[in-house]
Specification:
Blueprint: H1 2-19, H2 23-39, H3 46-71, H4 79-95, H5 100-125, H6 129-148, H7 158-165, E1 167-168, E2 171-172, H8 173-191, H9 193-203, H10 205-210, H11 215-241, H12 252-262, H13 274-293, H14 298-330
Antiparallel strand pairs: 1-2
């Protein structure tokens, strides 16, 4: 009798797990890790796991912001250029003798300024986010090129470099910051009024507006948050490399968007969670790291990421159609 009840409990828990948005990416991540471990056992070595987690921290910081934008039904293609600009501004100020903390604040504020411009144009002019952020991607990258002339800014002061080297319980600072941000934003999305407005905006913007939600302010806010986080990731990246690279963040937006989408964030808005997006960010770093360990050419790696992004969008479309069919049947 106990065995039967245990089996029923296990089945019930498994059923509840499979109904969660994050179930697909969790299963995919576990299966992929098992596959890679069979091909190359060094993947699960302590040193490699440490490297994967540290790399995930850089991606996760921006994935959090991208998740918010995607949930509202928007898109931000400028995050890679903003990452580079945030690192360059911080590096240049440090080289000019500005103390590290004010230099970091300035780099992050530049990201906030870029996000404000994106949000303002999208909200006030009504131009699609794809066009606005694509233009900003080129504008910010051009500004980076003008400021650096293509030459890396180095060496950076020890005060900045040591930030990335700092460990708490042997955990890199960037990982601690990323996880802390993920927890905070998860709580906001699941419990705070601002989180509910983000989901409402992505679900049906007109209905949200009629219900009294300030949709313009919400939309503006998510772009500011995303660019600010991208600039913060750029500061950490500069600290890790010990120099502010003009080419930093190239292709970064693809990794961030892909991580968010395969983590269950809907491209149509109104669906997704920070937990899923965080696992998606981890999966993207596992994928990149494993392909490198298996000595797969970087050109093939880009192809794989592109294919995964397309498949993730197709899966998102399939899920939405399935949810729509189920809701129609219930009605």
């Amino acid at each position: 009798m106990n065995d039967e009840s245990n089996k029923k409990n296990i089945k019930a828990k498994l059923g509840r797990f499979m109904q969660k948005q994050e179930s697909s990416i969790v299963i995919a991540t576990v299966l992929y890790v098992l596959f890679v471990t069979c091909v190359n056992p060094t993947f699960l070595s302590t040193g490699n796991i440490f490297n994967v987690l540290r790399s995930t921290g850089f991606t996760l910081i921006t994935v959090i912001g991208m998740a918010l934008v995607l949930i509202t039904g928007g898109l931000d293609l400028s995050v890679g250029s903003v990452l580079a600009l945030g690192g360059v501004i911080t590096g240049m100020l440090c080289k000019a003798g500005v103390p590290v903390l004010p230099a970091i604040v300035a780099g992050v504020l530049v990201g906030a300024l870029i996000g404000s411009i994106n949000g303002m144009i999208i909200v006030k002019a009504g131009i699609p986010p794809l066009i606005v952020t694509l233009g900003m991607q080129y504008a910010a990258r051009g500004l980076v090129s003008v400021l650096t002339q293509g030459v890396p800014i180095y060496p950076l002061p020890d005060g900045l470099v040591n930030i990335e080297k700092t460990r708490i319980f042997n955990i890199p600072m960037v990982v601690i910051v990323a996880i802390s941000l993920a927890v905070i934003v998860h709580i906001i999305l699941s419990r705070a009024p601002f989180g509910r407005t983000i989901y409402a905006l992505g679900g049906n913007e007109e209905a949200a507006r009629i219900s009294g939600i300030n949709t313009k302010r919400t939309k503006f806010s998510v772009y500011v948050i995303t660019s600010t986080l991208a600039a913060l990731a750029g500061v950490f990246m500069a600290a890790r490399l010990g120099s502010a690279e003009a080419a930093a963040g190239s292709g970064y937006e693809l990794t961030v968007i892909c991580g968010a989408i395969i983590g269950g964030i809907s491209t149509f808005g109104g669906m997704g969670s920070i937990i899923g997006a965080s696992i998606g960010a981890l999966f993207m770093e596992i994928l990149t790291n494993s392909l490198t360990l298996m000595r797969v050419s970087v050109y093939w790696q880009n192809l794989v990421v592109g294919v995964i992004l397309v498949l993730a969008v197709l899966l998102d479309q399939y899920k939405r159609q399935l949810i729509l069919k189920n809701s129609i049947k219930k009605d």
